[in-house]
Every structure is written in structure tokens, then in C-alpha cells.
Design a protein that fits this description.
The complex is a heterodimer of chains A (428) and B (299).
Chain A: H1 2-26, E1 30-37, H2 38-44, H3 48-54, E2 58-65, H4 67-79, E3 86-90, H5 94-99, H6 107-112, H7 123-127, E4 130-131, E5 134-135, E6 138-143, E7 146-150, H8 151-156, H9 166-179, E8 188-189, H10 196-204, E9 210-211, E10 216-217, H11 222-236, H12 250-255, E11 261-264, H13 269-275, E12 284-287, E13 301-302, E14 304-310, H14 317-327, H15 330-340, E15 343-344, H16 353-356, H17 361-368, E16 371-372, H18 380-396, H19 402-416, H20 418-425
Parallel strand pairs in A: 1-2, 1-3, 8-11, 13-16
Antiparallel strand pairs in A: 3-14, 4-5, 6-14, 6-15, 7-11, 7-12, 9-10
Helix pairs in contact in A: 10-11, 18-19
Chain B: H1 2-40, H2 47-51, H3 62-69, H4 71-103, H5 110-122, H6 125-135, H7 142-149, H8 161-189, H9 193-201, H10 206-234, H11 238-243, H12 255-265, H13 269-298
The chains are: A alpha/beta (428), B mainly alpha (299).
Chain lengths: 428, 299
Amino acid sequence: MKAGKLISFIIFIVFLGLFYACSRNSDKETTVTFWAMGSEAEYVTKLVPEFEKRNPGIKVKVQAVPWNAAQEKLITAFASDNTPDACQLGNTWVPQFSSLNAIISLDHFIAESQVIKKENYFPGIWDTNVIDSSVYGIPWYVDTRLMFYRTDIFEKAGYKNPPKSWDELHDLCKKIKALYPGEEKYAIYLPTNEWVPFIIFGLQNGSSLLKDKNTRGDFSSREYKEAFDFLIKFHKEKLAPIGISQVTNVYQALKDEYFALYISGPWNINEFKKWMTGSLADKWSTAPMPSKSGDNYPGVSLAGGSSLVIFKNSERKKEVWKFIEYLSEKETQIEFYKLLYNLPAVKEAWEDSSIANNIYMKAFYEQFHHVVATPKIPEWEQIAFSKVQQYAELAARDAMSIDEALQKLDKDVDLILEKRRWLIESQK
Amino acid sequence: MKSIKHSYSFTSTAAYFFIAPALIAILIFFFIPVIAAFVISFTDFDIYALGSLDTVRFVGLKNYLRLFEDPLFWLSLKNTSYYVLLATPLTIAVSLSAALLLNSKLIKYKSIFRLSYFMPYITTLVAVAIVWRFIYHPKFGILNYFLGLVGINPIDWLGDPNWAMPAIVIMSVWKSFGYNMIIFIAGLQNIPEDLYEAASLEGAGEWQKFKSITLPLLAPTTLFISIITIVGYFQLFAEPYIMTQGGPLNSTLSIVQFMYQEGFRWWNMGYSASIAFVLFFIILIITMIQFKVQKITAK
């Protein structure tokens, strides 16, 4: 009896092995895994069938990762050797994953590619993917920040055109505030839990943000201080609301004239369209960032967006590169824009009527020629999110003087970058 | 003699054998991680270390020393203590009052009340926090609406650094009093009825009965509840994480949230581990004090 059981067990195992071998043999196609975030994951699956039709033998498995858990999930996947073949990565994360040695340089793929060429992309965006003169990511879609504003209120304040310089911006805001004497209305929304404007204006004024090969903070420098002071002035002169919780809904707030100007990104175009309806439908627009003096208009903004990267542990790099090439074709980029309104990274795609005829896109197209990257170090996110925002809030609430805030900011940043200094000195 | 000894050692081996699965699980999933975290707290394990272990440096007590110099740590400790000091007595008072009301003979449909008071405790915290964010909205929130009816000016509950923590306290008390209430009801039902009868015959009023019978006899229950409440409240995390993200001006940043930020947002694992151990010692000391107090009062 016992022997009988053992024999049947062995037979079972053998069959299992055979079955597995068969399924492997018949399965000649390769499946590549691709992780995408948020709604991108949902919509990129609609592009997959066309790719699979063109490339018999390659199947693409798209896995959705929620945006707010994405970084955590990717890093844990890396720590446990479970990374996908390729994934979408916010371009500010590229330095982090390249310093982790998790993603590979794509230089040799690009050199042989017929589809992906550097000159197809906006230079500022392309640059965010370059680390130590190697390319680690291919821009998939792009974003940047610029001004969303109420045209009617600007006109009432005497501005037919959006402001082109810092002085004009400040003057305009004062005039808007004066339109509502005694009312709780503001000109501009500059929440201190959004670090981006605090960095954009610094960059516009020529600040390098960090110094000594990005190993120390440079926020106490004259260039940065001027920009920081300029922004905090809006809070101190009550041109911008100080708290963050009064505005739970920026769309409603713009509609209610709670403020007339907000610096934000392309993901808000459709949201504003949804809210600004009826007589308000033509009362808002987008405009590029002003520059410091008004020369060199428009001023710079941040090079944002998502890139496509290949993981080092992938055994199907060639196959997944084909998928990246497919996603970077002009037609696929236009298709993707139509699905999700993510702005195409490939410049040629902007010529398509669906984008060229969108009045809100013009400002973006112009702005993308004036975008720069934030410092390309893994610590940048921590510096921006925790430190810049923290001290911007303290200064905006007048809990600290500007000089004190920036000195403390530098001190904190130096502490965060201690490891980086050590790594560079010891050449690890 | 020999056979007895043999069977004894046999049963003990068998016992070990039987508890082995549980022990192994605890060892792998609890002790080893805890020890690893303790070791990591003496290193500068960070995002570079995840990439290459060569970059890990043994830093001795540096993380702990840096922690004691970090204003954010002291702020988060202060915030958490403020929260615990405010929320614990309130929770106990509210749950005891609710328990007394529900234990009263005058009330009908007790189970409905008990259920509805217990409901917040079992509702998902994330959903609750989102709803409370609406309640606290300075312009459209229902709380400010009611305050407005009695002539109180609107309060920016979650946006004002002075009000954000009290707002979180109110929500937490609402969320957790139901659980403590059930324990109090159990404690109340253990008090013999004849004590109250005897007191009534002696002419004691309701307040005297409560002070001289209910409170002393509930002391062990109260102690138990205060320990679990304080330990639980020291680990404040999800409420501020969802409602305020620690703001405004870090006024609701709790220790656990500070630890989470350092560890899983900025990947400073070494530093984050040192925060975890400091929190562990704080909770340990508080629990030890409470046990001491219990022993003294028991005598």
C-alpha cells in the first residue's frame, strides 16, 4: 500500500515535469513585462495589440502600479530581484534608479535605432535622462509647469497679455488684489506644499541650487535668495493665500475667482475644461512662464514627464526595446495623446491636428523649448519635498526670516548630501 | 526510573516539535527582522546601499546622536506626546460615559446603540479620515456650520497649526471609544448589583455610588484600557498621514510618520531604524511605569 502510494506520487511528479516542459516548448513566444503607473497602465494596454500584431512572438504584459506607491514598489522589487523588464519612470527618478544600478544605459540601443534619435525630442527633456553622458531613459510623455489664468480678470486688471517679466507679474497681482477691496480673494495661488515654483524661479534667476558637484546646498546664494524673496513677497503682501487647506479644489477656486493665476501642469487642462463651463468657458487660458527681466521670454520651467527604462535584470532586453521603440513612434505617441492627453515627447507628434488645434497647447509647446532638469542626484526628491517645502512654509508664515530659512535649508541639505560627498571623495 | 525519565524527555522533545512551526515563524518573521533592524540602526544604510552594499558604513551611535539633534524628531515627539496626553483621558472619559449610559436600565434598544457606537472602530481608517476631512473643511464643512449656528467663527481645523492636532484628537476619540466602551461595559457588568442596593439603602446618591463603587471596582479595567490606549496612540500614523500629511508647519507630524518618511520616502533606513528603537524604548518605559502603578494600587 505504502509503495503504491509512493509510485503514484512519483508518476505524478514525472507528469508534472513533462507537462511543464511541454508548455515551455509549445510556448515559443517571449512575454515581456512592463510596469506603468496610474491611468497610463490602463491606456497603454490599448496600444499593445497593435504591437503584438506587428511582432509575432512577443507578448507584452502590462502591470499597473499606483503612482503614490510606485517608487516604494519599484525599490522593493529591485531589492528582491523582482523587477519587470521595463517600466515607466518619472524622469526625476531616473538618477535614483541609475545610482541603484537597477537600470541600464541605453546608448548602444539608441546608436542602432531607426526610430529613437536624440533630435526628435525637446533638448531639456532629453537631458533629464542623461547621467554622466549616458542615456538611461527614453522620454515617453512630457510635462512642465506654466501659468493657468483667468483672461477676464487679467483684462480687468489692465493686462491684455500675460506677464512677461517678474515685475509685470508682481504688478499684475497687486492690481488683481485691488479689484476686490476687503474681500477674501487673491491674485495667485502659490501653495508651499508644491516646491516646483520655488525651484523654477530660482533657476530663472541663474541659481544652480546645489554646488560643489551637487554635494552642498547653494540656497543662500544671492541668485536663489532673490527668487525666494520674490515668491514669499506674494504671501506677505496677501497676494497669495498662505494656508493650503482653504483650497481643497483648485478648479472651483479658479472658477470662484478665489485666485486668478495658478502655476500648474498639463494634467490640469482637461480638469479646468470640465469646471470652466458656460460663460466661463473662454475666460481662461495658459501662458508660458515669465522671465526675470522680460528678455529671453519665456523663462525656464521644469522638464517633467515620464521616461521608459530597461532593468538590468531583464533577460529580454532586446524584445522590450522593440516595445519602447513602438511607443516612441510618432503615430503611437499621437494615439496615446488621444487616449489620455499625455503630451507627446516626440516633437513631430505635436504637428498632428489633434494637438496643434488645441489652444491650450500652444503655451506648452513654447515652454518645452525652455525647460531644464533639476539636479540629477538621488537625494533631490528629499531635498525638494521635505526641505524646500518646509522652509518655504516657514518663511511664508513669517515664522522665520528669509535669511534664516535659507541658511537652515543649506545646513539641512548639506547633512542630506553627506553620504554623497563621502562617495565622491572615496570614489566609490 | 529510567523509563520515566525517558518518557519525560520524549514528551518534551515532542512538545518542542509541536511548537516548532510557530517558533520558526516567529524567529523568521519577527526576531530576525528586529535584530537586523537593530544592526541597521548603527549603519548609514540608505538608497546607495540598496545599490551596492560596499557603501554601507558602520556609524556607531551617530544615527541616535543625530536624532537627538534633529528638530523634527523633537517636534514629532512633542506632537505625539501632546496627542497622547489629550486623546487618552478624553477617550477614557467618553467611553466610560457611553458605557455607563448603555449599562443603565432606563435605555431601550441597547444593542442598536452599542452597535452604532462600535461602528466607527471597525470602519476603515482611510475612509473615515477622508470623510472627516470634509467635516473639517473651513468653508463647507458641517462642523463649522454647526459652530456658526451658535455664533462661533469658522475654524480652519486642518489648516491652522494650533487646531490641526486637536482636530485629529477629536477624530481619533470618535474612532476608538467604541472599543473601550465594550470593555467598560464588561467591567461594569462584573460589579455585583447588591453593592448598589446596599448603598441605596444607606441613602447614597447616584454620584456617591459612582464615586465609591463603580470607579474603584473599575480600576483594573481602566488601567488595562489606559495601557492599550497609550501604546496604540503613541503609534499614531494613518490619521495625520491621510488628513494632513504631517502639516501644517509639521504640527501633526508623529514619530511613526517621521520614521516612515525617513525610511520609505527617503530610504534612510539606518536613521529610520534608530527612530523605531527610540520609539520602542519610550513605549517600553511607559508600560513599565503603568505596571508599577498597578502593583502599588493593587496593594
